[in-house]
Specification:
Elements: H1 4-18, E1 23-25, H2 28-39, H3 42-66, E2 69-74, H4 87-90, E3 93-99, H5 103-114, E4 131-133, E5 160-164, H6 173-181, E6 192-198, E7 211-215, E8 219-223, H7 226-237, E9 239-241, H8 244-261, E10 263-265, E11 268-275, E12 278-283, H9 290-294, H10 309-312, E13 318-320, H11 325-338, E14 342-345, E15 359-362, E16 369-372, E17 388-392, H12 397-406, E18 409-410, H13 421-425, H14 433-436, E19 443-450, E20 456-460, H15 477-487, E21 492-500, E22 502-503, E23 506-516, H16 519-533, E24 542-550, E25 553-564, H17 574-582, E26 587-591, H18 595-599, H19 601-604, E27 615-624, H20 630-641, E28 649-654, H21 658-661, E29 676-685, H22 692-708, H23 727-730, H24 738-748, E30 769-775, H25 781-795, E31 802-806, H26 809-819, H27 823-828, H28 830-850, H29 854-864, E32 871-875, H30 882-886, E33 894-901, H31 904-910, H32 918-938, E34 943-946, H33 953-963, H34 969-976, E35 979-982, E36 990-993, H35 1003-1014, E37 1024-1028, H36 1031-1043, E38 1046-1052, E39 1060-1065, E40 1079-1084, E41 1094-1101, H37 1105-1116, E42 1124-1131, H38 1137-1143, ...
């Protein structure tokens, strides 16, 4: 599909071809109508999935360090995007100023910000009224001398200046941003200019970004309606023809252009989709610091010809070319000083070696290659290898192979001659991998410039004559060597690598080609190749396969490589068996290591030989086992049948052998158990770079990778970068090693200087689970938390970040400072803690008396300090009903409470070391007894664990049965079925269309299954499933049928025959419209027998108004509150529904939700 930029060009070109009549700009009303089209539906998703998350990440540390902040927003539109942020961020905004030239938008945003909402103001804690200037933001304009509000200086400065898709038409953009940077506060540091803009139109000459991010999958849609298309096309072009007849004719042509360039989807036949990739760029006062670097480090002379065509489309702030180690160190010092990031150019194959408005460091000058033999000085080196090769990171694969081959040796690098150091440091899969392992397995040492300190480091074995002056061995040398072998682009700038070398072989190569008539034949051929050929090859041989389309037919190409270091004339007996399966080869050749590059099938045979054509390509690689299995064969064959471009193909490189011999945790390259690396390759003519054809090919690569990912045994990290589409792939790129790599990244690159390497930060693929562990003294809360952390680490094979923390630690630290107590003993010595318990309690209560919001502050600080954690256990909470009290503070996370129970005797046994003070113990026991009884009456925890059994088996079983299911993929599948609907049912609300689940294929079945599996009660004890129209009917009916329990329907009053019972119901603020009135709900009087056990099923829990009425109705029917349970599909904690239910006397009702969402 076309991008908005290419559509704009096409529309303007068509208008110019038709008429040369005068043009006029859009009126404010016309602009408003077009803007509304752009930001709804899929356009809103770019706000939800890109703008709001990234703006939140930028603001969070700023408000933490600055406290209250001032904001200047340029072009907010009818509403500021700031109102979509979490409340804890919005309430930190003390001043708000905006420039909005559109009179309608200015009036709308002013009224909206000044109005008192039924819930709260969008910016609730402003110190001054918002100031909206009805004029454009013009650089160096003297019109802005009066932008301040009363009480501020005329030269007002801001913490944040925001351009959210509001820089279109502002030129030159670099000057506009420089002007804005001059309006940032001086102290405290950290003020930012934040820009969101379409990706294809954002080049800033010489300005350096503090942080950038991209959103390549952004899109917008327009309804295929003439009037709608007229408004949309006019908005995109920004002009109309003054002549009425000419305007009518142009509009008709514009509709044709839109319909021609758009993409249509079967699920939405009446909608036209356009691509709208976006970029985020954040600038600080250091954005103009480039000259400081370029006066000390040489610039690249001329253009750097990077191999990757996607990278060529990026415009870096500058490219520097250091010539020695000191130059590289200077680059790092500059980046650290100004809190900026760098990208690194090695061979230039990476799509992120150049990044927009970021300084790139070209390592091309470090191209020396040295060979050390057994006779050289090799002090400290112990290995069976007779040769070492020291290669600078400016070398290409061919350079190393050519130099070593002349000495009769080789290094097991990859199969692409022009690839650079990124290959060796992140894996390196070549035709010697089954014999000698990956390229990274041959690394024994490296010289690295630390991006934490700019210090030169010698890691592993580096011959002394190749150690830079002043280089040191770091304390974590073992960790860094481990990391370099598979993830080496992330931890420092690598200057040189020491490889162990092997005897150079010659290669015999046999090729087969098979035209395939249909999918069954293709599947059979893949099966025979996999099971009868590849699996039977000795490790000295390796097999490649290619699946491609040529001459109107599907083809399978097969190559078998046999390296040999001897001149044997006898044929390997394995070929007898191979010939029985594949037949006689099409051709046979013998080559050396250089000739091997040209002998690759994709170079010499595919589509006439890609090596001779001017093409560009895009690749992603997943690791597979059993490629002949029917499910995988179907996916790969379908992929070729639906390829986006004729030249695209799949390449399978065989693994196993020495690759598998290395344990997954022995190096950072943790994916070892695979048979084939499947390289998904999209290819297009080079003159189509950056066009729709290239974008389609890239999207095809990602789609195929996504289809194969569930069946894969890992992903190759060498291609991956900051593109958000890589996040799901990166999550499987390092096997069990990602948590360790993540921690090492944080310590080795704390300022994220190398921000554009392959990511292994935990991405928010799964929703975070926060478990509040409560219970009486000595029930075993901290013990259980420790067991569950260990259990989850084992169950998930380190794929989740899990942590246990105590909320009382902050109070203990403050108490220790105030009283002189030993804080370490307060945290670790139970007896010592018991001596201070009464004083600690008094101290905390005094703090709360002075600061009533202290519990909430402690909770939020604890949660925010563990943002990288998937599962957070919190102990030490004393608050009643903590889920009801705190869930609205973390609406993006699932918050549950696990109450630990233990018998009095068991608690005495565990607390025996602190029982010497009988009077205190009795007082404590009495207080706990009262507290437990109150808790039993007042509210119900999410889960209860009886910790009366010795050992940890029961605790582990509990975690597996009750906590692990929250991370099941089927919950995420269910969440993906809930479509957001912005500005519905009224402005300011983004509805989550929960009922849409039932309209998706398999949605109702999945939801019913999850209800059945996640129910924490006993189905045999449930007598009735009750539900209220309309959402509850859909899900409750399916569940009642599944579990064979009768249904009780609750309706609006007046719709059921008498006799009935009824209660009034208040509509929630979220769902009601202006015409909504409070009404009643009813059910048949004798439908539910008195004393029944009832499960209430509904679609959502938000404010709790409807559910509260349902529970009142059940009470009237004679159902005891403690006999009621509730299950909902989706919960919206922001609206504090649980708290309302508790205030109304229903805290004891157990409430479960399958999904948790922020917002409405």
């Amino acid at each position: 599909m076309a991008t908005l930029d290419s559509l704009k060009c096409a529309l303007r070109q068509r208008a110019m071809e038709m008429a040369s009549c005068p043009r006029k700009p859009l009126s404010d009303k016309q602009y408003s109508l077009g803007f509304d089209i752009l930001v709804r539906g899929s356009g809103w998703m770019s706000y939800r999935d890109f703008i709001i998350p990234h703006l939140s990440r930028l603001l969070a540390p700023l408000v933490k360090s600055h406290g209250r902040i001032s904001v200047l927003e340029i072009g907010p539109g009818p509403k500021s995007v700031l109102a979509c942020l979490a409340r804890n961020l919005r309430q930190k905004i003390r001043r708000y100023t905006a420039f909005e030239p559109n009179e309608l938008f200015a009036t709308s945003v002013e009224d909206w910000l000044s109005s008192v909402s039924e819930i709260e103001s969008p910016l609730p804690d402003l110190e001054y009224p918002p100031r909206i200037h009805r004029m454009p933001f013009i650089p160096h304009s003297h019109q802005r001398t009066g932008i301040c509000t009363s009480g501020c200086d005329n030269d007002e400065k801001f913490d944040i200046i925001l351009f959210c898709h509001s820089m279109y038409g502002m030129n030159p953009k670099a000057k506009v941003i420089e002007e804005a940077i001059g309006m940032l506060i001086e102290q405290p540091e950290g003020g930012m200019v934040v820009v969101f803009h379409r990706e294809n139109d954002f080049y800033l000459d010489g300005l350096v970004c503090h942080r950038t991010a991209s959103f390549p999958t952004g899109s917008v849609f327009v309804v295929d309606d003439d009037d709608e298309l007229d408004r949309f096309a006019s908005f995109v072009t920004g002009v109309l023809a003054e002549d009425v007849e000419a305007d009518r004719a142009i509009r008709a042509e514009w509709r044709k252009v839109c319909r021609t360039l758009a993409r249509r989807e079967e699920a939405h036949p009446n909608q036209l989709f356009f691509s709208s990739p976006a970029i985020m760029a954040a600038f600080t006062k250091d954005a103009t610091a480039l000259s400081e670097l370029t006066t000390q480090v040489p610039l690249l002379n001329g253009n750097r010809l990077v191999k990757n065509r996607e990278a060529r489309l990026h415009h870096p702030a500058s490219i520097v070319r250091p010539t020695d180690v000191k130059d590289v160190q200077q680059c790092v010092k500059w980046a650290l000083k100004h809190k900026l990031s760098l990208s690194i150019i090695g061979g230039g194959h990476s799509g992120h070696c150049l990044w927009p408005n970021v300084v790139a460091v070209d390592m091309g000058a470090f191209d020396q290659i040295h060979i050390l033999t057994a006779g050289n000085d090799r002090e400290g080196w112990c290995s069976s290898s007779d040769y070492l090769v020291i290669a600078g990171t400016g070398c290409k694969t061919e350079d190393i192979i050519r130099k070593t081959m002349a000495a009769g040796i080789t290094v097991p690098l990859g199969a692409r001659p022009s690839v650079g150091a990124g290959l060796w440091l992140q894996g390196g899969i070549g035709h010697l991998a089954r014999v000698h392992g990956l390229a990274c397995d041959a690394i024994v040492g490296a010289v690295v410039i630390s991006v934490e300190s700019s210090q030169a480091l010698c890691i592993g074995y580096v011959p002394k004559q190749y150690r830079p002056a002043g280089a040191v061995c770091p304390d974590n040398e073992t960790d860094l060597l481990w990391a370099i072998k598979g993830a080496g682009t992330n931890f420092g700038i690598v200057v040189s690598v020491t490889f162990k070398a092997f005897v150079a072989p010659t290669y015999s190569i046999r090729n087969w080609g098979f035209p395939l008539s249909d999918k069954p034949e293709a599947s059979l051929k893949l099966y025979n190749f996999d099971r009868l050929v590849a699996k039977n090859l000795p490790r000295g041989l390796s097999a490649d396969a290619y699946l491609y389309w040529d001459i109107d037919q599907l083809h399978l190409g097969i190559t078998i490589f046999e390296p040999s270091t001897t001149r044997s004339t006898s044929e390997n007996p394995i070929y007898t068996d191979i010939l029985k399966v594949l037949g006689l080869e099409d051709d046979y050749s013998m080559v050396d290591s250089i000739g091997l590059f040209e002998a690759e099938m994709y170079i010499s045979r595919l589509h006439g030989g890609h090596g001779r054509s001017k093409t560009s390509s895009f690749k992603r690689c997943v690791f597979l086992k059993n490629i002949g299995a029917l499910n995988i064969a179907n996916i790969v064959v379908t992929a070729i049948e639906t390829r986006a471009t004729p030249l695209s193909y799949l390449h399978f490189l065989q693994g196993g052998g020495a690759v598998h011999d290395v344990a997954p945790n022995a190096t950072a390259f943790g994916c070892r158990d695979w048979d084939f690396a499947c390289v998904i390759t999209g290819v297009w003519p080079r003159d189509q770079d950056g066009t729709k054809l290239a974008r389609d090919a890239i999207r095809w690569v990602y789609d195929v990778a996504k289809d194969l990912l569930p069946f894969s045994d890992g992903v190759y990290s060498a291609d991956l970068g900051p593109d958000p589409r890589d996040a799901a792939l990166a999550a499987k790129a390092f096997g069990p090693n990602r948590p360790r790599l993540n921690r090492l990244k944080q310590s080795s690159d704390p300022c994220n200087v190398l921000a554009y390497a392959c990511p292994f930060q935990n991405t928010p693929i799964r929703q975070r689970l926060i478990v509040l562990i409560t219970g009486d003294i000595c029930a075993g809360k901290d013990y259980c938390a420790g067991i569950w952390v260990s259990a989850f680490t084992l169950y998930t094979q380190n794929s989740l970040m899990v942590r246990a923390v105590s909320i009382s630690d902050v109070t203990k630290q403050e108490y220790a400072v105030a009283t002189g107590a030993d804080v370490s003993r307060l945290c670790q010595d139970r007896a010592y803690k018991e001596q201070h318990r009464s004083a600690l309690t008094t101290f905390f209560q005094d703090q709360v008396q002075r600061r009533p919001c202290l519990p909430e502050e402690h909770f939020l600080n604890l949660v925010n300090s563990a943002m990288d954690v998937d599962l957070l256990f919190i102990t030490g909470m004393r608050d009643e009903a903590p889920v009801a009290s705190f869930s609205h503070l973390v609406p993006n996370s699932r918050l549950i409470e696990v109450r630990i129970r233990a018998s009095e005797q068991m608690r005495r046994n565990r607390g025996s070391s602190c029982d010497s003070d009988d009077s205190y113990h009795e007082e404590s026991k009495h207080r706990n007894h009262i507290k437990s009884n109150l808790a039993a009456v007042d509210y119900c925890p999410s889960l209860i664990f009886d910790n009366d059994t010795a050992g940890d088996d029961a605790a582990k079983d509990f975690a597996k049965q009750h906590l692990l299911p929250f991370f099941a993929d089927d919950l995420q599948r269910l969440a993906n079925m809930v479509r957001p609907v912005p500005e519905f049912p009224r402005p300011g609300i983004c509805l989550r269309h929960v009922l849409n689940i039932s309209q998706q294929p398999g949605g109702l079945t999945l939801c019913t299954s999850l209800f059945q599996r996640h129910f924490t009660g006993e189905w045999a004890q449930v007598n009735v499933i009750a539900c209220c129209e309309a959402g509850g009917y859909v899900y409750a009916s399916a569940l009642a049928l599944q579990v064979d329990i009768r249904l009780a329907l609750i309706r609006e009053a007046g719709k059921l025959p008498p006799p009935t019972i009824s209660v009034p119901r208040s509509k929630s603020n979220i769902s009601k419209t202006d015409s909504s009135k409070n009404n009643s709900i009813e059910m048949e009087r004798y439908l539910i027998p008195s004393g029944s056990s009832v499960l209430v099923v509904d679609d959502v829990l938000a404010t709790g108004q409807t559910l509260c009425a349902v529970l009142h109705l059940l009470q009237i029917a004679g159902v005891r509150t403690q006999d009621i349970r509730v299950m909902v599909v989706a919960e919206f904690p922001l609206h504090r529904g649980r708290e309302l239910l508790r205030r109304c006397g229903f805290g004891v009702v157990n409430i479960q939700s399958l999904l948790v969402f922020d917002g409405a």
